[in-house]
Every structure is written in C-alpha cells, then in structure tokens.
Fold this sequence. Notes:
Layout: E1 11-18, H1 29-46, E2 49-55, E3 59-66, H2 71-90, E4 102-106, H3 109-125, H4 140-143, H5 156-159, H6 167-177
Antiparallel strand pairs: 1-3, 1-4, 2-3
Helix pairs in contact: 1-2
Amino acid sequence: MPRPLRDASPGVHHVTVGATGYEAYFGDANDRMLWLRRLVLVLDRYRWTCVLMCQLTTHVHLIVDIPDNSLPRGMHALNSVYSRDFNADHGRRGYLIRARYWSKPIRSDAQLLLTYRYGARNPVRAGECARCEEWRYSSVATSCGLTNDYPFVDATRVLHQFGRPPDAARALLAYLAAGD
C-alpha cells in the first residue's frame, strides 16, 4: 500500500527530518554548515521563507512558509544532496535519513506560536542548553536580534504577535522561557 500523500499546499509548514536509528544527522560543525548552505540554496530556489531553523544532533526542525506546492521538491533537493555529501565525508554507505521528512501545515497564529516554541525548546528539553537563545544551532537568537548568525531567517510573523521591536523580542524570549 502506498504512503498517503502529504499536504504540500502553499502556506506555513513545520518540517522535521532526522537520521536513521540513533545515528547522528550532524556529525560535526562542518556537517551543520554543509546542511545550512544547502538549505539556503533551497530557500532561494523555491522562494521559501524560513521562520525557524533548529539543528539538533539527530534531527532538525524547520518552520517554512511555502508560496506554492514545492515542499516535496525542495525537501528532496535538500535531503538527497546532504545525505550524499554526509556519506562521502564520513566514509559511510546506506541511508542517512530514517524516513521521508515529516511535515504538518500550520493553519493559525496560535498554532504557529506553539510550533515555534516546540521547535525552539528542543535543545532545552534535550539538556543541551538552559535557554533557547543559547543554542548556537538555532535561529532563535538571530530572530530576537541577539546575533546575526542566520540572516536567511525571517521570524517577523512570530514576532508581530508580541508587539513592536524591541519589546517583541523580549516578549518572545519570555514566552519561550515559560516552557512547554
């Protein structure tokens, strides 16, 4: 029986992808950069807006705004090249990715906030850091104006729900710190 089709309609989507089994999706900082470069190419090619990016060791969370039905094509372009390059760099063979990427459309501002918090808090829940903005492999600090590490990220849609800058950034950080 074939797998059900995903909802690839235009709009905002929460997307995750991870390594097979308990393997690392990112083995080192070079892997993280390789993946980020590929992500930026996909964002540009398909005219996606990245709202959140959070890399963990075994998986990654994205919130992306897709203007058309290009989500499957873009994720294929990201995952296939990254997997090939990861395997070549680490002298491994076989599947890197555990399954197809997972995605879920985000239909409301309330759902966007909850999904943003979920993705941003992943490193905190994993014990990697105490606060979301401390995780260097997440776009939260950039979105709140604390760094410019991920200039391709645009969290304006999230920040607008908290008022005007710089109060919006402080309110977002407080919302994230409040927990799950």
